[in-house]
Amino acid sequence: MEPILSKVIRQRARIHPHREAYVFEGRSVSYLEFYDRASKAGRMLQAQGLAKGDRVGILCLNGVEAVDLVFGAIVAGVVPVSLPWKAVPQEYASIIADAGVRHVFAAPMFLPALATLPGTVTVHPLDAELKKEMDAANTLKAVAQTAADLAAIIYTSGTTGTPKGVMLSHANLYACASLCAMETPGFGPTTRLLVCGPLYSIFGFGAFFSSLYTGCTAVLLPMFDPESTLAAIQDESVTHALFAPIMMRAMAAVPDAAGFDMRTLQHIQYGGSPMPEALMRAVMGLFQCDLTQVYGLTETTGVGCALRYDDHRAILSATAHGRVPPIASAGKPGVGVQLAVCDDDGQQVPVGEVGEVRMKGDVVSMGYWGDREVNERFLADGWFLTGDMGVLDEEGYLTLVDRRNDMIVSKGVNIFPAEIEAVLEKHPDVKECAVVSAPNEDLGEEVCAVVVTTKSDLDLLEVRKWCAGKVADSKLPSRLEFVDVLPRTLTGKVLRRAVRAPFWKNEPKGVKG
Description:
Helix content: 25-40%
Radius of gyration: 23 Å
Structural class: alpha/beta
CATH topology of the domain at 408-504: GMP Synthetase, Chain A, domain 3
Number of strands: 25
CATH class of the domain at 408-504: Alpha Beta
Largest sheet: 9 strands, mixed
CATH architecture of the domain at 408-504: 2-Layer Sandwich
Strand order of the largest sheet: 2-1-10-9-11-12-13-14-15
Oligomer: single chain
Strand content: 15-25%
């Protein structure tokens, strides 16, 4: 099968047209219907004047319409830019402007958030009229595509916190799906893969395409909800799933979690952070299946290293022979992925010493839309600088110990302090502030605002109300601390590491995400 997404979709429809491609809220969509719907969406986009390489915005929860538009764009050679529905209007506008999007297709619930877009952007409601347009459009025009062509752009926070479009080629996504298939026990045509991650992220989009690559069935949810997810595993006979540890913790906390029948579940892949042994044992007790942890970034198409299922078995086994893998490890690189831990000069550091993690391989993306930061992180020789600091042991296991930048990962969301600080500094009672991460067992890391205030009774609730609507809810501070003065360098820059240090003094390493 050629490493081009549109050809994968066509070939699946030809080879086994009546097999379930995915199910959504009780509705079954066959591979033939999947391709037909994508083709209709693709020709509708072409009728709007969109051609190969043009970008189209999509704003809706996971569902049939989202799948139609994302893969309809791909078969038409148009580049889907799925907007993060947890964002705020300013973020939508920023991404739309950055990507040069001229047409946005949005669910009715999101239309008010797009009301202030410039007149150069046309917003199309996802309604009955649009369905008529799709049905009435002319034949899909053939588009020549290669594996090296841009397939999709996924926006993520870059090293500065400004949203950056990660350009993923067909070859990138094919390499990701291939690696997932190779590394996941029992992942094949009979798999029923739960997809609860949003399609605007590599977590959701990558998982959904992996099901198409394998020719199995995706069980698509609108979004993650602990009880609904447990019910889906039971009712749809799910065999494989992808979660973040925080999701599994939430499911384990559902009062009647053990009452759901999850005997069909064979394997869970998780990412975003390692799992403490206590949570790992609780998860194993609830789900009774194998686990694999994957470490990667959107810039590496979501994959790179894995702490594999047999590593987890060894960690949890009381009778394991030989050396047990470190539970906090991100594992070893996947097939076709090169990994190095280097100093600031690009030289590999000795085993056991800390350096910046670099990756190389077909999973490394094309770079950022507009080539921003290309010389800083995407090197000419193919290496990608992750910004994560790590250490390799003598057996090749990678353990992350810190971040090179100030990014916070809370509940799987990348958060950069500068965005929140810019809002807090405008509060009349905040003299100065610094936003840092603090460890949190439920969130991984929480957003901690450290402020110098002129008001003695300033509290967290007031700070959150001030920030609400100016930053996404997932970025609101969940902890507030007061200091008399912030530590600064001789040039006046806040020493963020010094601000952060007290919260992490009892932690064995400087990251929990």
